[in-house]
Specification:
CATH superfamily of the largest domain in chain C: P-loop containing nucleotide triphosphate hydrolases
Strand content of chain A: 15-25%
CATH class of the largest domain in chain C: Alpha Beta
Number of helices of chain C: 11
Number of domains of chain A: 1
Strand content of chain C: 15-25%
Oligomer: heterotrimer
Shape of chain C: globular
Order of helices and strands of chain C: EEEHHEEHEHHHEHEHEEHHH
Number of strands of chain A: 10
CATH architecture of chain A: 3-Layer(aba) Sandwich
CATH topology of chain A: Rossmann fold
Strand order of the largest sheet of chain A: 6-7-8-3-9-10
CATH class of chain A: Alpha Beta
Order of helices and strands of chain A: EEEHEEHEHHHEHEHEEHHHH
Structural class of chain A: alpha/beta
CATH topology of the largest domain in chain C: Rossmann fold
Radius of gyration of chain C: 20 Å
Strand order of the largest sheet of chain C: 6-7-8-3-9-10
Helix content of chain C: 25-40%
Shape of chain A: globular
Number of domains of chain C: 2
Chains: A alpha/beta, B mainly alpha, C alpha/beta
Number of strands of chain C: 10
Distance between the termini of chain C: 47 Å
Chain lengths: 271, 258, 280
């Protein structure tokens, strides 16, 4: 469980970016943290694995306070996948890159070999196992970065802006993969401002604006709220915009398939 | 701790008389302080030179960061003091050398804290330094904070994968910096390529006759600063050669033990 | 005569065997607003680079075919000359801003062109006004939000008075509202100043309303080219591009047998179509 109590964070120069955040994320939940650029989303998730220590309040990961715990220890249960894979790739082969974390955590070589192979197969990266990560395309590098975090099987997985620079098909695959992760009882936290992406998988949405949580609840309720989305510099999903302007349609539909079902039954009722 | 020393050289935009001074006048002023510091070995005079900069720091509203850079340079200053003592100089002389170092550090700190790299580049350009050099200089300065952010991100990303920078023997610690250096270098190269593309797209280098939009113009106050600085320099020059200067001797000495 | 005329263009980057562009033919008329899209790796960025000479001058490789831009042969002119005619806005705002004030950044291009101080001043004022950032002129670009930075980039490019603006995924790093705003500014430049726009975008939900034409690339070739209603009508979502959700919705309804008069490409069109269906 990720427990955040009255969390405040201020940079060393005194600039406070989180002003008292309270939230609980239960094991196995699927949560999207959304908000405008600069709202504090990345800062917030960096407190989950101890990279940033609270300057006020506290953060508890599985009942352990992050303030007194090292990043290396917390990282074992909280895997944070950064936005730009180029900020971490450094090995000669994809195999080494993915094995890096396991070596840091002290796993024995045979376990490392097995786990690396496993995650590379899951993410369709086996063809590149001996390639240099620098030679891969942008999307492939993103998958390698993801593999290098998933390989140690952390209980909680945080993805920071995973959809930036991805095309439609890549986002689709990513979304399916995230949902699959979640069915394996992993807590999944996605930091994003991609409303349409979230609309199609409808997790719990936590809306952050100006360093404070301004909403926390169902995607269908929050992403259809005009005032809230505007405050967080988001745009409501197209389906929501569409339904809100036509009378007698439910106001909490945001994904295409539900929309189709609603319209089909509305047509049937008329005939 | 040694990072604080860089804080004292970072430019912040403020509207103080020191900030608004033409960079060329400011440079002359700072160089005069520099040269005067080198002219004297008298501990009292050097202390005066050091303290005389405080009003400048105060006018430039940079007391806190200047203090940071002084604290950061403390280690180096201490080293200078002890090196002088150990090689046989008197206590007074060693102290004088330390104060001279701090005076020099301080003068450059004031200069860089109150002068924007753009203005520096412009000053160089107006001094007929080739434009490509001026641009290289300003861009390098502009990129320092950006690279610092990159470096922090890389460190964060690798720590999130279990990298522990403060564990292990010396050799291991050095090796631990490879996962930080490589992504940083790759990042820097990628960034340079993007910058170069953008430069090409903005016709960089097309015309050798650039007329910059903003031109540095010396105001009356700037000329005054130059005149006063040069006067002080002449005065100091004369004093160092001919005047009888008050001095003190602190009779402390390290016992010779070699 | 089209302002952009690409004939049988093929290009492979140096050191690669697979071509990034294969026999691309494309004509763009003056004043058009064209969206170029396609799955990752389809060649859209390479195509943009061909328009202002970055390919093949900056990015070496084998190029066959012809690219004529404003009557000039884009392969034989250096990028600095082409930049008079083709302005380029890149994805990452951070790496295309050079100065410590917005004003100086916008002046950078005209200064490089060797213009007189008065002419530079005139252009800077005009560019700042048209992009609506006059109030930011003394601010440092790195202090600004991503959306503001992209506006500065736009103004900087505009100050060179190009006839064509090429933008390569300018909304990549922006949040939805900033994305919508910047696309609005680009559309205004196209509408009011007649600047031809070539916009590479994934966010078709936001960009479609502004364009007159969509070109879809896949594996280096043009697979679809036409007005949005034609391109989206032809199962474009199967190629792997993100058609607007409302378009996808009506495709699915049509598949279910619902009578659709016109597949909508914007929310407004969808509203009209939906009301039509429900009040039959």
């Amino acid at each position: 469980m990720i427990m955040v109590e009255n969390l405040r964070y201020a940079y060393p120069n005194g600039n406070e970016v989180l002003h008292g955040v309270n939230l609980n994320i239960g094991d196995g939940e699927f949560v999207a943290i959304m908000g405008e650029n600069g709202a504090g989303k990345t800062t917030l998730v960096k407190t989950f694995n101890g990279l940033l220590k609270p300057t006020g309040g506290k953060v508890l990961i599985d009942d352990v306070e992050t303030r007194k715990t090292s990043v290396a220890t917390l990282a074992r249960s909280v895997g944070l996948v950064f936005q730009n894979p180029d900020h971490q790739l450094f090995c000669e082969t994809v195999r080494d890159e993915v094995a890096y974390s396991l070596r840091n955590f002290g796993y024995p070589p045979d376990v490392i070999e097995r786990r690396v192979r496993g995650i590379l197969e899951t993410l369709d990266l086996m063809p590149y196992v001996d390639s240099s990560p620098f030679m891969l395309s942008g999307g492939e590098r993103k998958r390698v970065a993801l593999a290098s975090v998933l390989v140690w099987n952390p209980k909680h997985i945080v993805l920071d802006e995973p959809t930036i620079g991805q095309d439609y098909q890549q986002k689709d695959r990513l979304r399916n993969f995230i949902v699959q992760l979640n069915t394996q009882q992993k807590t999944v936290v996605v930091v994003t401002h991609d409303v349409e992406f979230i609309a199609e998988c409808r997790p719990r949405v936590i809306l952050l604006s100006g360093g404070r949580i301004i909403a926390d609840g169902k995607a269908e309720e929050i992403l259809t709220d005009k005032a809230l989305t505007e405050k967080a510099s988001l745009i409501r999903p197209q389906i929501s915009l569409l339904f809100s302007s036509v009378a007698n349609l439910p106001r909490d539909v945001i994904d295409v398939f539900s929309a189709k079902a609603v319209i089909n039954s509305a047509i049937r009722r008329r005939t | 701790m040694s990072m604080r020393i860089f804080e004292g050289f970072k430019f912040t935009k403020l509207q103080t008389p020191i900030h608004l001074m033409d960079p060329r006048a400011k440079f002359i002023m700072i160089m005069v302080v520099f040269v005067i510091s080198l002219l004297f070995t008298n501990v009292l005079i050097l202390t005066v030179i050091f303290l005389a900069q405080l009003p400048l720091v105060w006018l430039g509203r940079s007391m806190r960061r200047w203090g940071g850079s002084m604290k950061g340079g403390f280690l180096l200053a201490g080293l200078i003091f002890f090196m002088n003592l150990i090689t046989g100089s008197t206590f007074t002389y060693s102290l004088a050398m330390t104060i001279r170092f701090l005076a020099l550090l301080s003068s450059f700190s004031i200069f860089f804290m109150t002068t924007s790299p753009d203005d520096l580049g412009l000053a160089l350009e107006q001094a007929h330094v080739p434009y490509s050099l001026c641009f290289t200089f300003t861009t390098a300065v502009r990129l320092v904070p950006t690279m610092a952010v990159d470096a922090q991100t890389v460190i964060d990303a690798q720590r999130s994968r279990g990298l522990e920078l403060d564990k292990g023997n010396l050799l291991k610690r050095i090796r631990n910096y490879i996962p930080i250096l490589i992504p940083l270098i790759v990042s820097a190269i990628r960034r340079s390529v993007e910058l170069a593309e953008a430069l090409e797209s903005r016709a960089f280098g097309l015309s050798s006759k650039r007329q910059p939009l903003i031109v540095l113009e010396m105001k009356a106050s700037d000329y005054l600063v130059v005149v006063v600085s040069l006067l002080l320099l002449s005065l100091a020059g004369w004093a160092s050669l001919y005047a009888q200067l008050p001095s003190i001797e602190i009779p402390l000495q390290l016992p010779r033990f070699w | 005569m089209p302002i952009i005329d690409i004939k049988d263009l093929s290009f492979s980057y140096a050191g690669t065997t697979r071509p990034s562009l294969s026999n691309v033919n494309l004509e763009v008329k003056k004043g058009e607003f064209v969206i170029v899209t396609g799955p990752s790796g389809c060649g859209k960025t390479t195509l943009c680079r061909c328009l202002n000479g970055l390919v093949p001058n900056f990015y070496a490789g084998e190029l066959t075919g012809e690219v004529l831009v404003c009557g000039l042969n884009a392969q034989r002119q250096p990028t600095s000359v082409l930049s008079h005619h083709v302005g380029f806005v890149f994805q990452n705002p951070e790496n295309q801003l050079f100065s410590l004030t917005v004003e100086r950044d916008v002046a950078f291009g005209p200064e490089n062109l060797g213009l007189s101080r008065d002419e530079t001043r005139r252009r800077v004022e005009w560019a700042l006004e048209v992009t609506g950032i006059g109030g930011l002129r003394d601010r440092a670009p790195y202090e600004l939000s991503g959306g503001q930075q992209q506006r500065v980039a736009l103004a900087s490019v505009l100050a060179m008075e190009p006839e064509i603006m090429v933008l390569d995924e300018p909304t990549s790093f922006l949040d939805p509202r900033s994305s919508r705003e910047i696309l609005g500014v680009v559309a205004k430049l196209n509408r009011d100043l007649g600047i031809t726009v070539v916009l590479v975008e994934h966010r078709l939900d936001l960009a479609t309303r502004h364009c007159s034409r969509i070109v879809v690339l896949d594996k280096g070739t043009v697979v679809l080219d036409g007005p949005p209603k034609d391109v989206y009508g032809r199962q474009a979502h199967l190629i792997g591009i993100g058609v607007p959700k409302v378009t996808l919705l009506f495709h699915l309804l049509k598949q279910d047998g619902v009578e659709i008069e016109k597949i909508p490409v914007t929310v407004e069109e969808a509203e009209a179509e939906l009301r039509g269906i429900l009040t039959h």
